[in-house]
């Protein structure tokens, strides 16, 4: 048994050296009954220091911004053990966010309707064209990103152009803010597109590729808007 644990530890060390970063696990935590608020989070293991981390957010979907005090972040000091699950950090942080979730009436079972999902391992595209088979609507989405690398200092921004055509009627929306530049973010990818329970509010969960001195990491953010 001791030999097996030593082998596992060696393999983990090798993986950490080969990839000095991490890929967070994304979690949809639901909408309020009126779709005015959305909650999501993610968690993982920061292999640069071996510590579990978690982040939870409550978003005002009308303002496309966090509610007051709606950002929760945690980095935990527990050491990795064989069979250990970093989701424990997420559960701990979720309990801290639960009172605010109740205030905004988040229903964790009301997770909206998924109309687009990028499967893990697939390469994402900045141009999406797909049909919503539940409604027959045609979706065309373009993510326009701008990345600058000045003397090794990376910053980036992005905007979204969305067109939804239903029964020959086209509704167009622009989202995101190209004026906001984010440090250390080298790429953006659309991970999920969710239509809220009201059928009008849309949440796009965007994957961010972050590059810094410790390596590369994947984190997530949300963009929200309403269809006309």
SSE diagram, text form:
Layout: H1 2-18, E1 22-23, E2 25-31, E3 37-46, E4 51-60, E5 65-75, H2 87-103, E6 113-117, E7 127-131, E8 138-150, E9 153-166, E10 169-176, E11 182-183, E12 185-195, E13 201-212, E14 215-226
Parallel strand pairs: 1-14
Antiparallel strand pairs: 2-3, 3-4, 4-5, 6-12, 7-8, 8-9, 9-10, 9-11, 12-13, 13-14
Descriptive account of the structure:
This protein is mainly beta and 228 residues long. The protein folds into 2 domains: 1-110, no CATH class; 112-228, no CATH class. It contains 2 helices and 14 strands; from the N terminus they run αβββββαβββββββββ. It has a 5-stranded mixed sheet with strand order 1-14-13-12-6, with no helix packed on it. Strand 4 and strand 5 form a beta hairpin. The longest helix has 17 residues, at 2-18. It is globular and about 55 Å long. 27% of the residues are buried. Mean pLDDT is 89; it is low at 1-20.
